[in-house]
Write a structure and sequence with these properties.
Oligomer: single chain
Structural class: alpha/beta
Radius of gyration: 35 Å
Distance between the termini: 21 Å
Number of strands: 10
Strand content: 5-15%
Shape: elongated
CATH superfamily of the largest domain: ABC transporter type 1, transmembrane domain
Number of domains: 2
Length: 617
């Protein structure tokens, strides 16, 4: 049960609002940062530059050979020279193809390396994000960033760098050689190229804006799929007969995505049509002007043909450079979305020189703790209490009082705003994250079970555990009979979210997971609240085994579970409203008495008896 004493709604709204108002990162800054991803591959980058340069220079040879054939070999009727020139043409073509294969291999090696690095960094960053982030962000949106956004930049990362470099070297070397052959005809052929710069920039900006919108709708679609097609989502949909409603929501998002995709695909089509027209008109203009120059004797026919070939060769790289600009601009939107996640601040950070606590005795102290999830809304106010090592301390109070918030602060899932939470007299902020995880464990009301084997689910808390250790804790939580009836024993796959198990079996499995880790401090968020009586008895037995010798903080929604507690804390509106044992509080604390009467329907605080807790519990 999420008992946040203030909730996350306001914080979520603030976060979304700031994101919507935040301007896009400056394109140049984003581009520089994206190029910085290639820094670990500078050696391969240099080799790629050499290969691309050689490949581009080799590409200049065939038109020169054609010029030589037309101007020299044919007029002189020199068959031997023709044979040599054609052989050179074949060899250079083969060499160019081999260099192309090498270029493709190196660029893919670099590109996929960058992609792997981005995925690793993004996943690592998300792993370190605080619980606040995951509560306020749709899981489908997170999945979209890690998969769809990263996949969206694959082409630009894998091919764009080498394509841009290859086309640039090809264009520069081709223009230089054309100017050497005939500068007048060369200028006539390339004069129109500057006219395409401004339209290209405008198309690129439009593509970038649309890519941002498209990826956001992709995230919405991914989130909807994640929610509606999960086991719980599908079950809820069928229970309330909302299949048509879910289909209509999906259809609406999918339609928006279709429209955006069409608009993005058509952006700049007219521009690229004119760019393609230039590719036809420029060689035609060259033949027109060059043909008259050949007739007048100002130019040799081989030179004219070579220039036309070079101009055709020039058109491809120039067109691709303009197209790459559009591709890069649209990809910048994806980089910005990825960098936005990579730049998310860590709320829970390990301090320099943090203490690694081997094994705690288990004394927990809240010292004047105040905490808020959102601005101007305090969930806890100046709260102080002590749980001595080995004590069972129960938290009771109305919904929203702050009980779950207290449980989150013990293992430092959040940091306090004021005061301190101490473990064995040490502020938890001064301990290493690993030692906190080793010393403090939680059993939540709704345990998460992986779509994996029973063994893997139990051993998640200690992956190196042996099969004998796993079987021992399974027997301790009374799941031995279940395992004996499973087709593959502890290697049986339990299904998504443990749907092959009952509620009580899932809860006992989660308890076995904690038992295997053997922490000195335990936080229980009423692990039996949603179970039937038979399952509750089985789980209580497992909990009794788990609680022995450990400091235990129990969030009690059923007062019948706290009678045997060493100490009961009554929480109201984030404050400590009472402290003591059951009989003492029942006689002296009005709030505790009201909670007791409301739950058991008694006329007065002194009437009736609670179901006694077992000695184990």
């Amino acid at each position: 049960m999420m008992d946040h004493g203030g909730g996350f709604g306001g914080w979520r709204g603030m976060r979304r609002g700031s994101r919507e108002r935040q301007p896009l990162r400056a394109p140049r800054a984003t581009l520089r940062r994206a190029l910085g991803l290639f820094r670990p591959y500078w050696g391969l980058s240099l080799l790629l530059v050499v290969i691309i340069t050689l490949s581009s220079l080799i590409g200049l040879v065939p038109p020169l050979l054609i010029r030589r054939i037309l101007n020299d070999a044919l007029p002189q009727r020199d068959g031997g020279q023709i044979n040599v020139l054609v052989l050179i043409m074949v060899v250079t073509s083969l060499l160019g193809s081999l260099l192309g294969v090498a270029q493709s291999w190196i660029s893919n090696l670099m590109g996929q390396g960058v992609m792997e690095s981005i995925r690793n960094h993004l996943y690592g960053r998300l792993q370190r994000m605080p619980l606040r982030f995951f509560i306020s962000t749709r899981s489908g949106e997170v999945m979209s960033r890690v998969t769809s956004d990263v996949n969206g930049i694959q082409d630009v990362v894998t091919n764009t760098f080498s394509s841009m470099l290859s086309n640039l070297i090809t264009a520069v070397s081709t223009i230089a050689l054309m100017m050497v052959l005939d500068w007048r005809l060369s200028l006539l052929g390339i004069a129109a190229l500057p006219l395409f710069i401004w339209p290209t920039r405008r198309v690129g900006r439009m593509q970038r804006d649309m890519a941002t919108q498209q990826q956001q709708r992709m995230a919405d679609l991914s989130a909807h799929l994640q929610e509606s097609l999960s086991v719980n989502g599908a079950l809820l949909t069928k229970i309330f007969g909302q299949e048509q409603h879910q289909l209509e929501r999906f259809t609406s998002i999918n339609h928006d995505l279709r429209q955006l995709s069409i608009r993005r695909a058509l952006v700049g089509r007219w521009f690229f049509m004119f760019l393609g027209l230039f590719g036809v008109l420029a060689p035609a203009l060259t033949y027109w002007y060059g043909g008259h120059a050949v007739i007048s004797g100002d130019m040799q026919i081989g030179t004219m043909v070579a220039l036309a070939a070079y101009l055709t060769r020039l058109f491809g790289p120039v067109t691709q450079l303009f197209s790459l600009n559009v591709t890069v601009e649209s990809s910048l939107a994806l980089f910005e979305r990825l960098f936005e996640y990579l730049d998310l601040p860590f709320e829970i950070e390990e301090r320099p020189g943090a203490i690694d606590l081997p094994r705690a005795e288990g004394r927990i102290e809240f010292r004047n703790v105040s905490f808020k999830y959102v601005e101007h809304s305090w969930a806890l106010h100046d709260l102080s209490f002590v749980a001595e090592a080995g004590q069972v301390v129960a938290l009771v109070g109305p919904s929203g009082a702050g009980k779950t918030t207290i449980s989150y602060l013990v293992p430092r899932l959040f940091d306090v705003n004021e005061g301190a939470v101490l473990l064995d007299g040490v502020d938890v902020r001064d301990l290493t994250v690993a030692s906190l995880a080793r010393n403090i464990a939680m059993v939540t009301q709704e345990p998460f079970i992986f779509h994996a084997s029973l063994r893997d689910n139990v051993a998640y808390s200690r992956p190196g555990a042996s099969d004998d250790e796993v079987r021992r804790v399974i027997d301790d939580v009374r799941l031995g009979d279940l395992v004996s009836h499973l087709p593959e024993g502890i290697d049986t796959i339990v299904g998504e979210r443990g749907y092959r198990l009952s509620g009580g079996e899932k809860q006992r499995l989660s308890i076995a997971r904690v038992l295997l880790n053997d922490p000195p401090v335990l936080v229980l968020d009423e692990a039996t609240n949603s179970l039937d009586s038979e399952s509750e008895l089985a789980v209580q037995g497992a909990i009794g085994k788990l609680m022995r010798g450990r400091t235990t903080i129990v969030i009690a929604h059923r007062l019948s579970t706290v009678v045997a507690s060493d100490k009961i804390l009554v929480i109201e509106n984030g404050r400590l409203a009472g402290e003591g044992r059951h009989t003492e509080l029942l006689a002296t604390n009005d709030l505790y008495g009201r909670l007791y009467n409301a739950q058991f329907g008694l006329g007065s605080a002194g009437e009736g008896t609670l179901r006694p807790a077992t000695s184990e519990y």
